[in-house]
Amino acid sequence: MLGALPSLAAASTLVWAVARSRAAVRQRLGRLARPATACAALSLITSFAVPTAGAYAGWKLAESAVLLLLLAAITRWSPRSELKSALPLTALAVTLWPLPLVTGESFLEAIGIATFWLIPVVAAVVAGAYPRRQELRRRRAVAEARSAQRLHLSRDLHDFVAHDISGIIVQAQAARFVAAADPSHAVLALERIEKAGLSALAAMDRTIQMLHGPETPTTEPLPDVSQLRSLVENFTSAGATEAHLDISPRATEALSREAGAAAYRIVVEALTNIRRHAPDAPHATITLTPTATTVEIRVTNDRGARPAAIRHRASRGGLGLPALTEHAQALGGTLSAGPHGNGGWQLTAVLPVTLPKETP
User: Fold this and answer.
1) 211 exposed, middle or buried (CB, 10 Å; 0-12, 13-18, 19+)?
2) What confidence tier does 349 reach under pLDDT thresholds 50, 70, 90?
3) Which domain range does residue 257 map to?
4) How far is CA 297 from the centre of its chain?
5) In the chain, N or C: fewer CB atoms in 10 Å?
């Protein structure tokens, strides 16, 4: 009866874990480490304390089979902190159980027997560790996909909505100052505010459609370099900075659709930074220069007055340029920004072109 006690305890532990609903089974399997440790300790005690006999050997063989099932279960479901004690002790109980039955054998033969029983232990650990690793990889993939989606959504909001809202703020400030003296200018500012608000709503609609999933059709494509001219005109009319665009038709044709959308985002970010950090800069220049394999985008602005509030806000930095730098690098290009001239600022990006296919 004493020899059968570990077998009955291990079998009862296994039945306790699985004799429930599916949700409860998974929860109990995660709590198997301590009962399995107790069963393994009881097995080791009885292995060296109970006199050997034929019936006893049969019970120990059944006990080892149940312990192997427990070993696979705890490897699969138990927390890592509990595996540190449960796994070695259970493996030791399965590996050493035959040794009391072969007391007459040599030391090397005893080592060989223990090594032989180590094989099913390794198989049980592998059987539990493989699905555990697969589930961990799946969870990491889901977390990375969600993180990438959040980053994509934040880029859309930052690149487009922030630009339109900053334009709305500038127009509202201008309308407040000219409303009393010249109502006609205030009406023009309100029209530009309406246009910028509609553009911000369109960007929000694209973001919401992305949240609904890839099966939701997109109402309009992302803007590209073909819309840079209207972007620069709206920027000039909305503030004190006069922006000039110099773009070659070959640059428009050379960029792929994805690279063209990235180029538009880069110019939007540069103009938004000018509006936020140097709103009274007299001039800004946007040039797109094509080469044999790349298109260089350069946005330069003169020095502005930079009031104290704007200097404080600019010193905090933001996520726009780092995100665009990563995007440009993902496309095979580069992006850099820094001081230029006498207190001005310059952003330079280089994007690869779509090379024409060779005809045979």
Assistant:
1) exposed
2) very high
3) 224-355
4) 29
5) C
Count of CB atoms situated within 10 Å of the CB of 183: 11
Give the pLDDT of residue 305: 62
Burial of 316 (0-12, 13-18, 19+ CB in 10 A): exposed
Mean of pLDDT values over 4-33: 60
CATH number at residue 228: 3.30.565.10
204: Cβ contacts below 8 Å, ≥ 6 apart: 157, 161
For 231-253, b/e burial (b = at least 16 CB within 10 A) is bbebbbebbebebebebeeebbe
| End residue of a domain, out of 104, 133, 166 | 104
CA 222 to chain centre: 23
Question: Is 131 within the bounds of a domain?
Answer: no
- 357 pLDDT exceeds 50? no
Six-digit token pair at 221?
């494509």
**Kind and range of the H or E run holding 23:** helix 22-29
Question: What percent of the chain shows pLDDT beyond 70?
Answer: 69
User: Each residue of 127-158: b (16+ CB within 10 Å) or e?
Assistant: bbeeeeeeeeeeeeeeeeeeeeeeeeeebbbb
Q: Could you give the CA distance from residue 272 to residue 263 in angstroms, rounded to a whole number?
A: 14
What are the angstrom distances between the C-alpha of 337 and each of 273, 279, 324, 334?
11, 18, 11, 11
Q: Read off the pTM.
A: 0.53
Identity of the amino acid at 197: G
Q: Which helix (H) or strand (E) holds 245?
A: strand 242-247
| End residue of a domain, out of 58, 76, 104 | 104
Residue 151 lies in a domain: no
Does 20 reside within a domain?
yes
The CA-to-CA distance between both ends of the chain, in Å, stands at 86
Q: Nearest to residue 337, comparing CAs of 298, 296, 282?
A: 298
User: Does pLDDT of 279 surpass 70?
Assistant: yes
The H or E element spanning position 235 is helix 228-238
Residue 19 lies in a domain: yes
Beta pairing, strands 283-290 & 242-247: parallel
